[in-house]
Amino acid sequence: MHGRRVLSPVLLLGAGTGEATCGILYLAGYLRRGGIEAFVRLHDGDETEDEVARSLEALVARVRPRLVGISLKWFHHVHRALLLARTLREIDPHIRIVVGGNTASYWWRELHAFDCIDHIVLGDGERPLLALCQGDPSPPNCVTRAPDGTPRRLPLEYVQGATNSEDVYYSHFDDIFLSHQDRHAFSGWVAPGKGCGENCLYCGGARGNQKAAFGRAKPFLRSEESVRRDHQEISHRTWQLRYDFAGSSAAFLQGTWAGVDLSRHSCMYFLWGVARMELIDALAQTFEHVHMVLDIGCFSEQQRHEQMRRGLLKPCASDQQLLEIIDGCRRHKNLDIEVSGIAGLPFASAATLEEEVRLVERVIRLDCLVGYQRLEAQPGALATEHPARFDMVSEARTFTEFLEYFEQREPGEVSVPMLRFRDAALERAVQRTSEHVDALASKHEEKKQRIALNGRTRLKNTAPSTLRFELGDWLGAHRVPAKVAREQVTVVRSVNGTGLACAPSLSPRRFADPTLDQGEDGRILLTTLATFEHPTTVASAVTQLGAKLKLDPYSAREVIEHLVNGRFLQPA
């Protein structure tokens, strides 16, 4: 490297709890192919600051990273990104700390003021991050510090498009994860393309901000070969695939699936805009089960058309088009539909609120799920930046206001700042309608999922995956003491992805982890699943569990109901 100081190993983290964005997986593979030893932590379950500190200390001790990259894609993770950066700085002041992603690119000036951050990557991150790791003194797309501490922003020289993104694809999944648990947390996201060509008034990632932060004037599809490599890398490692790009056609996706058997996989597709039946048909013919989310902007057709007329909303289906799509989907027994819209968009009125309720009720009568939420404030979105144009107020607009909001949230809380109407009477009406629709949607979803149980109900263990690991491999050597590392863990996945990790031989007194069902609890769950290995009535299983485990009938039925709710047991 001509005397440059190479920064390797590298650890990549997401800034939020739960599953991180798939971007860190693309970055890790790219770095590995560039000669950098990269690792990811894909799932983060820490809530308190003490938990954050303990897990980061263990990760740093395991990886010994010389650079840590923090993915700050979503704005509601800004407080946590800074918490991670500060904690890492305290653990090891010599680690170089880099943040990147949509939100980091949007707020780079504000983030640069924090001395726990060394570099900020603007826009696409693969080549800039590799350059940083290779010791390049002028990495493209980066904000670094001049000798006097002032920000030094380098040009956006690296902008991915259809002709220069062939080397961005998933790879090295056997190397980049530090535990089997973390790898199993991957939900199967694949990015067919990048960018957005629309300027929806509520979105911080709309066309204008894409151009400013990423230098990308319009969206693009990645090459078929690159996306095919994604499928080849992950198809045998995940039970489902997830997509959310508007520009994918049936022909394009079929080309990326070539040579990959997905007939036993599930698929979740978040479709922006008007769905094309040939795409829906291709999904249903390729996957065992498909969950299609149809985004129609909002449930009031009048409101939807007014926003599209003003150029404030992407093209969305009319009510008639939506109903025709739903009707066309009914010929596929393996496909279910969720219709998604935002409540409280501009130009609401008593008439549009009535329209919303009528369409929601009709969609529910057609047995479709409903996704519905109030309009949130997103940094850079037109409605957030200029709420007065729409006779609205925003609960946060500036970096400081957003940061203070998230700093004050209780651990585990998931609320975000909202946009509300200045007219108090209208705001109350919108909120009442929102709560009413939420109740309708929740009641319908609960009814769809409910399975009535009695003693004669015949159930079968339908879990499609049961795997066994040593505890040290499952949780990771950095989390497990050597004295219990060889204990056995049985990992069971249900048909909808719910997971159980049972360690029946491991007493919580020796080692405890909240993600495990340990000791007697683990033994009860595994024994109950084994009882239903063949179709069995609930009454018979209750009797068997009483004999095998000395469970009273009430407790036995409670365990059975728990496994039914998790879709481990299904009607035979």
Structural key phrases:
single chain, 572 residues, alpha/beta, Rossmann fold, pyruvate-formate lyase- activating enzyme, 3 domains, seven-stranded mixed β-sheet
| Number of separate domains | 3
Overall pLDDT metric: 95
CATH topology of the largest domain: pyruvate-formate lyase- activating enzyme
CATH hierarchy class name of the largest domain: Alpha Beta
Helix content: 25-40%
Distance between the termini: 63 Å
Q: List the uncertain runs.
A: none
Report the β-strand fraction as a percent range. 15-25%
Count of alpha and pi helical runs: 21
Strand-helix topology:
Elements: E1 10-14, E2 18-19, H1 23-33, E3 38-41, E4 43-44, H2 49-63, E5 67-71, H3 78-91, E6 96-100, H4 102-106, H5 108-112, E7 119-121, H6 126-133, E8 142-145, E9 151-153, H7 180-184, E10 193-194, H8 207-214, E11 220-221, H9 224-234, E12 240-243, H10 250-257, E13 266-272, H11 277-286, E14 289-295, H12 301-309, H13 319-329, E15 335-343, H14 350-365, E16 369-374, H15 382-385, E17 392-394, H16 399-407, E18 419-421, H17 424-449, E19 458-461, E20 465-470, H18 471-475, E21 488-493, E22 499-503, E23 517-518, H19 519-531, E24 536-537, H20 538-549, H21 553-565, E25 569-571
Parallel strand pairs: 1-3, 1-5, 5-6, 6-7, 12-13, 13-14, 14-15, 15-16, 22-23
Antiparallel strand pairs: 2-4, 7-8, 8-9, 10-11, 17-18, 19-24, 19-25, 20-21, 21-22
